[in-house]
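Hey all, quick one. A colleague (J.T.) asked me to put the alpha-L-arabinofuranose job into the tracker so the inputs and the structure tokens live in one place instead of scattered across chat threads. No bug as far as I know, just bookkeeping. Sequence used:
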Amino acid sequence: MKQTIKNIASLLVTCTLLAASCGCAVKSEPEPPEKDLIVVGFSQLGSESDWRIANTQSMLDALSEENGFDLLFDNAKQKQENQFLAIRNFIQQGVDYIVLAPIAETGWDSVLQEAKDAGLPVIIVDRQIQVEDESLYVSWVGSDFLKEGRTAVQWLENEISLKRMQNENIRILHIQGTDGATAQILRTHALNSAVASHPLWSIAARLQGEFTEACGYEVVRDFLETGESFNVIYSENDNMTFGAMQALDEAGLTYGPDGDIIIITFDAVHAALEECLAGNINLCVECNPMHGPRVANLIRQLEAGETPEKLVYVDETWFSYRRISETDLSERPY
Ligand code: AHR
């Protein structure tokens, strides 16, 4: 724990000024005891999507001074080297805890060994990491990305039968997120398994959209120029979906429940639910970004000497054009 030196200094200055101004002994009220803040260094991978912005806000809100934390925040701008640098800075500054939202699963062994050698507990949030020594992090909290992917493909299978399309070729345009991120790996895995077990399903193309709207737009726009046919978009996040929709609009293609292309998207942020309710997106699979309170609880558990669960999965749901209401939108905090 770190004393807030700033507060002590300002208290001393106040006392000196008071004594000087009234020229008599200072008889001050007893000050409330100095509050110890828990210093947390948080390395956020970037600000690539609406989901990420909601996730950052959730962390800032939960790890606030009012809640007993002194948060050092670093935005790595989608570069793992920046995350290494941030972690090394946190170690040097002697924080109490490090929280890492990793861009990709691999490459963390050395830098987390340094944190461990410095005696700093590390909490992983959102995507997972693959390390030789599991003791390099205390706990992980995030989504079950494989379950999300399976939810999506099961919904597609059901939708195809409801629409009596079982005998049609299903050509899937797959827009992938950042290579090596858990959300990309496992959502892709669920799709690949489903394609392998459905003889009429195939991948029209795989496009690298980096989880951003700009990339989603560009790769779909360029793909449409090839003239390849497809009737489903499986997009690994909402922002890439928004970019894809813009490219489809420009090309005069129709999508959504009444259009020619079924759109499946992940995250279910407010803007995506609006599109779903408006009949422009068929399925939104939820990925919950509100991890701040969960991370704060994990830290409190550690402070109390408890051993938290190694993996903490959050509950998530899904929304389709058949299963969405105004209430879902009004209840959405992000
Ligand atoms: O790791 C979670 C994913 O990262 C979200 O689906 C995406 O929007 C974000 O960029």
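Adding what we noticed when we looked at it: Residues 48-49, 51-52, 126-127, 181, 183, 211, 237, 266-267, 287 surround alpha-L-arabinofuranose (CB under 6 Å). Residues 1-27 have pLDDT under 50 and may be disordered.
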